[in-house]
Specification:
The chain is α/β, with parallel strands linked by helices. The chain has helices at residues 11-44, 58-68, 87-103, 115-143, 155-165, 194-206, 221-233, 245-248, 272-306, 366-374, 381-386, 400-403, 423-426, 434-446, 450-465, and strands at 147-152, 173-179, 211-214, 237-240, 252-257, 260-265, 313-319, 325-331, 391-393, 398-399, 419-421. Residues 1-8 have low confidence and may be disordered.
Length: 470
């Protein structure tokens, strides 16, 4: 699909056009959200509240503030365009705007805002900015050309990146060529001749490469630095797969040691205060959740009981925090004799690494199929959370046979309570092998924050509504 000539442009020029498309889309989204929030506040005000001409100056000022905080420049460095990760900055921008409007008295509005109007403006701005930016990015992704990537590294890493770029939200990229690091060793030398740059430029133009993704085989900083410089010199975007982050994740603080950058790695386990915050968050979420869905739980329980008899709940022994075992609750979705039928169906197993999963499992009941598709069979786990056996977000609770296959540093995943949802679920659990799943769980613990839990919960909603991974 050709839009404004974007698709016809090749190489670095296509990168510039794509970046401009996202920046302009976000600019329009911000203006619409800001104007919409103020108009909505004035329209819903109980008493007469009008905007002065000075309020018009607030829009470009907020846009400049967003620019200064990097809210228009993130997408050009990222393969995955996402709005949720920048939500804290958007909340800060909304807070600044609402606070200034409130303190300014009658400068921006015909009369000073009361507390309720200021609070409404803050919520409208925050929600509007997030929603408008999410919509604008989705539209920009639809019309933007596919980002063509050159992968430089080993073949295993190349295949991993290929799979991650396929059918993932917020990503529109593909690996069009793969080069081994040995074949580009001459690129990483200090001698930058015009002939060498012309050779590399011709290669990237022939392949129509927009971005290079590098998987270093060593920690040779000089080799990597020169390789990145060479690629950037010919106008190619560069992304790097840092091997160190496979162990420590992004839980690092950059420390400027008088001109030398040092990465400080945070402790792996949660502090007592962090653990307390996580537990309070779980109790509030699970308690409010049980109150909200109590009538629905009764209806589901009756439906399960009427559909073939048998118990309402399915209890399965799982491995929890520090290896302690507990009975995880679900609404029963299979016939009572499901476990006895497992051996006869083993040849139809579609999962990997010892997991057992069949897309059209004949053991699933009619009500059970609907419960699984809507994820409502997981609701009884709210009681596991109240009892302190599970968390709203956490590592996947494994059955005993699966847990026995986890060895080495992957067992550190048991430092946290298992969760109803987690990073493995929003990736689509049926497509994630056990080995990769536990690595994802490990990195979740290494990078834990309360905001991470909130993001995973928010991303679980569209995952469930879209019935992904079922």
């Amino acid at each position: 699909m050709a839009v404004s000539g974007i698709a016809e442009v090749r190489g670095p020029a296509a990168c510039l056009r794509r970046d401009a498309l996202f920046r302009r889309s976000l600019l329009v989204a911000d203006v619409v959200a800001i104007v919409g929030a103020f108009v909505l506040m004035v329209s819903l005000s109980r008493s007469s509240l009008g905007l002065s001409w000075a309020a018009a100056a607030g829009v470009p000022i907020l846009v400049v503030c967003a620019k200064l905080t990097g809210l228009y420049d993130r997408d050009e460095t990222l393969l995955r365009k996402t709005t949720l990760d920048e939500a804290p900055k958007l909340f800060q921008l909304a807070t600044l705007c609402a606070l200034v409007t409130w303190l300014a008295g009658g400068l921006l509005t015909h009369r000073p805002l009361d507390r309720h109007e200021a609070l409404f403006l803050w919520l409208a701005l925050a929600g509007g900015l997030i929603a408008a930016r999410a919509v604008s990015r989705a539209l920009a992704l639809r019309v933007a050309p596919v980002e063509r990537c050159l992968f430089i590294g080993d073949r295993v890493s190349a295949e991993t990146i290929r799979s991650k770029l396929c059918a993932r939200g917020g990503v529109k990229a593909e690996v069009v060529a793969h080069l081994d690091l040995d074949k580009v060793s001459s690129w990483s030398t200090d001698s930058f001749s015009e002939a060498r740059l012309a050779e590399i430029r011709d290669l990237t133009q022939t392949l129509d490469v927009h971005r290079a993704i590098i998987a270093p085989r060593s920690v040779d900083g000089g080799e990597m630095l020169n390789l990145v410089r060479t690629l950037k010199a010919v106008g190619v975007r560069v992304s790097v797969l840092p091997r160190l982050l496979e162990v420590v994740g992004s839980s690092v603080e950059f420390d400027d040691l008088h001109g030398v950058t040092v990465m400080g790695v945070r402790r792996f386990e949660l502090t007592r205060s962090s653990a307390a915050f996580k537990r309070v968050f779980d109790l509030l979420g699970a308690g409010l959740g049980l109150l909200a869905v109590c009538p629905l739980l009764l209806v589901i329980a009756v439906a399960v009981k009427l559909d073939g008899g048998g118990p309402v709940f399915f209890r399965q022994l799982r491995v929890g925090r520090h290896g302690q075992r507990f009975q995880m609750l679900k609404f029963r979705t299979m016939v009572p004799e499901a476990e006895a039928m497992k051996d006869a169906l083993r040849e139809h197993n579609e999962a990997q690494d010892g997991l057992f999963k069949i897309a059209r499992d004949p053991r699933v009941t009619r009500v059970g199929r609907w419960l699984r598709a809507s994820a409502l069979d997981e609701l009884p786990q709210l009681w596991n959370i109240v009892r302190g056996e599970m968390s709203l977000v956490g590592p996947r609770p494994l059955v005993i046979d699966e847990d026995r296959r986890i060895e080495g540093w992957h067992r550190r995943r048991l430092e946290l309570m298992p969760g109803m949802t987690g990073p493995w679920q929003i990736l689509g659990p049926t497509r994630v092998p056990l080995k990769e799943m536990v690595a994802i769980d490990y990195l979740y613990i290494a990078n834990w924050s309360l905001w991470t839990d909130i993001k995973i919960l928010l991303r679980t909603v569209p995952h469930v509504l879209g019935r992904r991974g079922l």
